[in-house]
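Recall the central idea of this unit: under ordinary conditions, the amino acid sequence of a chain determines the structure it adopts. In this exercise we apply that idea directly, starting from the sequence alone.
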Amino acid sequence: MGTVLAASGGWTVGLVLGIVVVLVAAAIVITIVMLARRIAEQARGAVEGVEAVRAQTDALAGIGQINDSGVRILHAASALRKVAVGK
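Accordingly, the structure predicted from this sequence is:
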């Protein structure tokens, strides 16, 4: 009879340990899923921010041409000043 009780005690310990392992694994998975949702939410916000910045900077596509024109105007004004002043 003592052997039967010892064997059933081993089952109990094994079953309890198995349940504990499953609960810990479930807690880890739940934590990972919650963090993944939060990261996805932050990523959506970042994408919206990038889109807003892109929309605001689309107008700067011709900035190189504008700078070149400004330099040409500056050189022309300098040349006119030299002619006008005589230097």
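The mean pLDDT is 86.
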